[in-house]
Amino acid sequence: MTTTDVLVVGAGLAGLHTATLLAERGHEVLLVERRTNLTTAIRTTGIFVRKTLDDFTLPAECLGPPIRRVALYPPDLRRPVTLVSDRDEYRVGDMAPLYVAAAQRARDAGVQLRLGTRYAGRRSDGFVVVYPSRPTTVRARYVVGADGARSRVARDLGLDRNRHLLIGAEEVFAIPRGHEPPTFHCVLDPSLAPGYLAWVVNDGQHAHVGVAGYADRFPDGMRRALDRFAKEAPGLPGADRPIDVERRGGPIPVGGLLRRIGCVDGLLVGDAAGAVSPLTAGGLDPCLRLSSLAADVLDDALRGRPAALTRYDGAGLRASFRGRLLLRRGLAQVRTPAAAALAFKVLRTSAGQAAARRILFGDRSFPTS
Where are the domains positioned within the chain? Predict the structure, then answer.
């Protein structure tokens, strides 16, 4: 039997951030992660938006060059709509060293980080985790589910679970520095990415080439769609394109923040809570902000104010995403290249470009209060 104040399940960015904040406030935290190495099985593209970079401290050496330019393409890849901000809008994180740095910060704060340790479920006397050699029961005052889009912690706590999921995959290329400015290329083509986008994020150091969409709508499967896109993707070096250095993939929740993300026994953070933009599928900003709120609420509860848990209300926060949930439904209905081409007629208008700028370069961030 192991006892702790908080058991955090999952050492992605959400779990690491929540665990570190709680430990820095003097609480005992056990963080378990089934991977034996945090630099493997990375699922996120690692795009940090301006608001995240303004409000959170991230290791500068783990961030790529800033990106101000976004190019939006119809299915035929002709006449892209190019939008340029007067501010640095995006930077792509080198996620492997970023996770290593975050893990070291967690350990320095006092977090007990146990890699190669699988969460096995809940029992009447605690939560079962499986270390490499043996199962152990953990008696924790609270548990935090940071265990991804298909969270087992959510099931065990009787909380909401993600029902609306995309699947995505990408290849990461190391590329020579070119003459073009760093650019985020987005392609709207339902034959490549049904219900979402295909993308190339080229910051002059790495190029992330990916597709995502609804699993049952890929005509020939996601892997073939990615292979086809990589051969014709915009924004990549031509014949000298190097071999990919990394492949990533996984489910992406796009149903919006779940309504029930907390109870008297624990909370959900990150993808487990559906803390991902329904429209853009960007999750790193909401991941950090919701994790900060979770740490605040749990800190109050651990100090004898359990009523603080009622502040962790997904239904209340979800109301701020009504517009993007509506746009998500609209994007999901773009089912043919002809419909995508028609959407670009709207995008080429001044009103369409103003709306796109607001989505891509706006000052709004994930609300936490």
Answer: 2-361
Q: Which two tokens stand for residue 166?
A: 């995309």
- Please report the pLDDT score of residue 243 as a whole number: 54
Please name the residues in contact with 187: beta carbons below 8 A apart, sequence gap of 6 or more: 73, 74, 75, 77, 193, 197, 198, 199, 229, 233, 234
* Helix or strand run (H / E) with residue 341: helix 337-347
CA distances from 58 to 17, 22, 283, 340 (A): 11, 18, 16, 37
How many C-beta atoms surround the C-beta of residue 10 within 10 A? Answer: 28
Measured from the Cβ of residue 249, the count of other Cβ atoms closer than 10 Å reads 19
Give per-residue pLDDT as tens, 159-188. Answer: 999 999 999 999 988 887 767 899 999 999
CA separation for the pair 282, 230 (Å, rounded): 22
**Tokens read off for 185:** 């290329």
| CATH code, residues 2-361 | 3.50.50.60
